[in-house]
Amino acid sequence: MGIATRDSLRDWLRAPGSLSRRLARLGQRFEVQVLHQGVTPFRALERAALGLPPRGLTVVREVILRVDGEPLVWARSALHQRATTGPWRALKGLGTRPLAHLLYDDPHIHRSELQPRRLARQGHTRRHAERQWAEATGTAMSSQMLWSRHSVFSRGGAQLRVMELFAPELAGHRPGRLRR
């Protein structure tokens, strides 16, 4: 994937606010397909982004965001396990509702700057996403699906990292503006 693909996804990589709300405007039916939610060991990037110690457990939620049945985004959210009994306890009961329901309706939640990132083709995150994508959709993830963004949401002293990996099909759509 060259620079042209990053340029074609630039608006999505930088779009503020709720990705779910932007995606929902692209079609008739928006859905969140939960792939996994559970406790796992920390990953280095998540640990660094969340300012966590070298050891511990993370609660992870991995989903595919679909519009009219078409999978367009693979997303992973992670937070320290202790935060699910405190500021982020509502994450446990989220189910198939978008994470946006928790993040954008609470004035006490603050978001870091969006950080675009190209995933390594053979990196752990990419390989993990490929496996889940294939199992959930019955098709292989596009080799061009390498551009992601991440940010950290803070509430009550606890952080939640969200990473979103974009399908190249989004390049043909504009994210548009959201009303507050």
From TrEMBL:
The keyword Lyase applies. Transmembrane segments: none annotated. This is Probable chorismate pyruvate-lyase. Belongs to the UbiC family. Gene3D superfamilies: Chorismate lyase-like. Keywords: Cytoplasm, Lyase, Pyruvate, Ubiquinone biosynthesis. The lineage of its organism: Bacteria, Pseudomonadati, Pseudomonadota, Betaproteobacteria, Burkholderiales. It is found in: Cytoplasm. It catalyses: chorismate = 4-hydroxybenzoate + pyruvate. One of its GO terms (molecular function) is lyase activity.
